[in-house]
C-alpha cells in the first residue's frame, strides 16, 4: 500500500484501485476505479516514477492500462476509460501508446465520420 499526501491529509490506497490521474500544475487529481476523486499535492512525474506500470498519455494524463475500455483513432487519438472518460493521446506518444495497447489486447475502434459527405459547403 502506498501512502500519498493529498489535500485533507494522507490517503492510503493501492495503485490497482486508481484508474487515471490528471495533472494540474503541482497537483494531481487521482480518479479511482470506484469513482472517487482525490486531490493530491504530488505532481504526475512523482506518480510516474512510483508506478511504472502506468502510461503517460500527455503532459497532464497518466493512466492505468487495466482501466481502459478501448482506444479510438480518427480526428483525435484517444483512450476511453471504463468510466467513459475520454483522454487525448499526445501526437508524439501515439505510436508508443498504440503498440502497448495492442500488445495488451485492448480493442481499437475507428471513429465514424461526424459529417455527411452528401452536403455541399459551397
TrEMBL record:
Keywords per UniProt: DNA-binding
Entries under PROSITE patterns matching the protein: HTH_LYTTR
Pfam families per UniProt: LytTR
Gene Ontology molecular-function annotations: DNA binding
Residue ranges annotated for the HTH LytTR-type domain, each copy included: 4-103
InterPro entries named among the record's database cross-references: LytTR_DNA-bd_dom
Keyword Calcium: no
Protein name, as recorded: LytTR family transcriptional regulator DNA-binding domain-containing protein
Organism: Fibrella forsythiae
Amino acid at each position: 500500500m502506498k501512502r500519498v499526501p493529498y489535500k485533507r491529509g494522507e490517503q492510503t490506497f493501492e495503485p490497482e484501485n486508481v484508474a487515471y490521474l490528471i495533472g494540474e500544475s503541482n497537483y494531481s487529481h487521482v480518479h479511482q476505479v470506484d469513482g472517487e476523486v482525490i486531490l493530491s499535492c504530488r505532481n504526475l512525474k512523482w506518480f510516474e516514477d512510483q508506478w511504472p506500470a502506468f502510461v503517460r498519455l500527455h503532459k497532464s494524463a497518466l493512466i492505468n492500462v487495466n482501466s481502459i475500455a478501448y482506444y479510438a483513432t480518427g480526428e483525435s487519438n484517444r483512450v476511453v476509460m471504463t468510466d467513459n472518460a475520454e483522454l487525448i493521446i499526445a501526437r508524439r506518444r501515439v505510436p508508443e501508446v498504440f503498440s502497448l495497447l495492442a500488445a495488451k489486447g485492448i480493442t481499437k475502434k475507428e471513429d465514424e465520420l461526424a459529417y455527411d459527405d452528401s452536403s455541399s459547403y459551397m
